[in-house]
Design brief:
It holds the Pfam family IFRD. Belongs to the IFRD family. One of its GO terms (biological process) is cell differentiation. InterPro entries: ARM-like (IPR011989), ARM-type_fold (IPR016024), IFRD (IPR039777), Interferon-rel_develop_reg_C (IPR006921), Interferon-rel_develop_reg_N (IPR007701). The protein has helices at about 10-25, 40-60, 65-80, 85-90, 90-105, 105-125, 130-145, 150-170, 175-185, 205-220, 225-235, 250-270, 275-290, 295-315, 335-350, 355-360, 360-365, 375-385, 385-410, and strands spanning about 320-325, 330-335. It is mainly alpha-helical. It folds into 3 domains: about 50-190, Leucine-rich Repeat Variant, CATH 1.25.10; about 225-320; about 320-400, no CATH class. Strand 1 (about 320-325) and strand 2 (about 330-335) form a beta hairpin. Helix 3 runs parallel beside helix 6, helix 11 packs across helix 12 (about 250-270) and helix 13 (about 275-290) runs antiparallel to helix 14 (about 295-315). The protein is globular and about 60 Å long.
């Protein structure tokens, strides 16, 4: 044995630059410039895999800072590129590293490891391999979620991870119900949360309650209808109490969950009737038109926008359809179930969501997009406009916008007569 290797700890900046410099440039086929040099994709892929192997090794390092940087670098790579074969060959090693970091790491390291576990399952999809990963990590995640001595951030990340991994891999209905029960035990504490003498609710665990509620709602979308009915009966009368929470994100999470529950209830029973409908719509309308001066303008704008849609869903059974573009394809989000699922995976994948919608078989199955659309280099080139054409278009649009604004801003413009 020679001298022990002296590993320099990675900073977050160094780790992300090293990884992303090799995966962001070719994560999107359209990112190449038409006049750029030809790239040897095989050599680039080998270079990326070599670096990723190094990051996997560093997840076992003695330095917590090095381990966390390695986890973040792996997360960046997994979210920006499909690495199915690479991951399949090393899934046991990755699972062991994640388990060790969640068990023994501090708050930030546990959060990074939980995020990587989500991406690992997203990459592998709903197969036997993912089930084995979840069998290993599921009990560890549940233990952290239920551990009152663990940091709130770690519990929050593990609750989200638990919901997403269960959504991806679970064919066992018993495991699904068990996971939902674990999450219910967390967010239902927000129903009974006492207020102090000043009327301000405790916010210590609010972020945890929000994550548990959203993860539970995601799992509800794949439950059998008889179970959905039971959950609706249990929670539909209690959830409105969360609309009075001081935390904006909790109010929004509760509102969107209510809209989804009403959507599912009406699917199971076209004549569904909610007894306290008048009181609920009054609450929702107040939030959709909230003008309290003590709230920030940005928060009020966001709240009003969300609750206008929630009110329409509850009162009129209506949903404002959204369109998502990725490459040459379009996807329409036309219901609350689809919106909840899309928002969850977008939160995990970040800027890599569009790329995964194009190339990830699991996500395409979830959103019923069919097999990936294969485009050759010639087709991609015809879809792109040249840099010069893009410049001309942007220049013309800028001039037109400036002229339109100038007319409105001209002090000599006729503003009406006063009598």
């Amino acid at each position: 044995g020679g001298q022990p290797r002296n590993v320099q700890p990675f900073s977050d900046e160094d780790a992300s630059i090293e990884t992303m410099s090799h995966c962001s440039g070719f994560s999107d086929p359209a990112s190449f410039t038409e006049d750029g040099p030809e790239v040897d994709e095989e050599a680039t892929q080998e270079d990326l895999e070599y670096k990723l192997k190094g990051f996997i090794d560093l997840t076992l390092d003695k330095s917590a800072k090095t381990r966390q940087a390695a986890l973040e670098s792996l997360k960046s790579a997994f979210s920006s590129k499909i690495l199915y074969e690479f991951i399949m060959e090393r899934r046991m090693t990755l699972t062991d590293s994640i388990e060790r970091c969640i068990k023994k790491g501090k708050s930030d390291e546990q959060c990074a490891a939980a995020g990587l576990a989500c991406l690992l399952c997203v990459q592998m999809g709903s197969g036997i391999e993912s089930e084995e990963v979840f069998k290993t990590l599921g009990p560890v995640l549940k233990k952290i979620v239920c551990d009152g001595t663990a940091s709130t951030q770690a519990r929050q990340a593990c609750a989200t991870c638990l919901g997403i991994c269960c959504f991806i891999v679970t064919d066992d209905i018993t495991e699904l119900y068990c996971t939902m029960e674990c999450l219910e035990n967390i967010f239902t504490k927000a129903y009974q949360r006492d207020r102090d003498t000043n009327g301000v609710s405790s916010t210590h665990n609010t972020v945890l309650h929000i994550s548990a509620l959203l993860a539970w709602t995601l799992l509800l979308t794949i439950c059998p209808m008889n179970e959905v009915k039971k959950k609706i009966e249990l929670h539909l009368h209690k959830l409105p109490s969360l609309l009075s929470c001081d935390d904006l994100n909790m109010r929004i999470a509760a509102g969107e969950t209510l809209a989804l529950l009403f959507e599912l209830a009406r699917e199971t029973d076209a004549d569904f009737f909610y007894e306290d409908m008048e009181l609920l719509t009054e609450k929702l309308r107040a939030l959709a038109t909230d003008g309290n001066k003590h709230r920030a303008k940005v928060d009020k704008r966001k709240q009003r926008s969300v609750f206008r849609d929630v009110l329409r869903a509850v009162e009129e059974r209506d949903f404002p359809t959204e369109m998502v573009k990725f490459g040459p394809e379009r996807m329409y989000i036309d219901c609350w179930v689809k919106k909840q699922t899309y928002d969850t995976f977008k939160e995990i994948l970040g800027s890599g969501m569009q790329y995964h919608l194009q190339s990830n078989d699991f996500l395409r199955n979830v959103f019923e997009l069919g097999p990936p659309v294969m485009l050759d280099a010639a087709t991609l080139k015809t879809m792109k406009i040249s840099r010069f054409e893009r410049h001309l278009y942007n220049s013309a649009a800028f001039k037109a916008r400036t002229k339109a604004r100038s007319k409105c801003r001209d002090k000599r413009a006729d503003v009406g007569e006063f009598f």
